User: Fold this.
Amino acid sequence: MTARRTRLIVALDTKDTAQAIRWRDQTALSADAIKLGLEFTYARGLDAVRQVADGGTLFLDLKLHDIPNTVGSAIGSLAALRPAMLTIHALGGGAMIAAARAAIDRAFPAGARPLLLAVTVLTSMDQDALHGIGIPDDPCAEVLRLGALAMAAGADGLVCSPLEIAPIRDRLGAAPVLVVPGIRPAGAASGDQKRIMTPAEASRAGADWIVVGRPITQAADPGAAAAAVAAELAG
Assistant:
């Protein structure tokens, strides 16, 4: 059990700016933040990201993964967006994560530094998928290994599936901010997600933030769907 309040990020996964703004507005009463990722940013660019974020709490999910110098330089280019959270891949290694940390500390004012979140193992991957790319561990063991590496290198938190929340808390304690995709309300289709929980289950396990996209944005009434998730989190 956890006493922390789990907050809701609505994933605005679309290539269309007007659609992203509609979803943002429809879910504004229930969402604590919005997520814009690769799909929208590649299609519309940084100016559109700024337009949709409109000064609100932005989770910028670009999963940066390159040599340390390139990742550091890219983070400097994102400073004008003032995201509250941004992502890198933990598989980039300790030097890359440390370079990202240093770039944030240089590029952002002290009171406006985003949380640096390291993506561990994608929620679409299971043990067979990991073995297919030469990783012998099961997903939980790999998440714990990468999570410890990322936190030691300067990350503020981790992106993990809900199934790894409790093991991370057991191993790394309360320090990592845990942002958790792979959330499916009861009765929702799992889609391409392999390691999932309901909002309430993830909250009880110790998630700081949950990320919900299609179960909200593809609902007949996205506002009502977001409100239902928020109510479930509130208990």
In short: The chain has a mean pLDDT of 93. The first helix runs from residue 17 to 27. Residues 116 and 156 are 5 Å apart (CA to CA). DSSP finds eleven helices and eight strands in the chain.
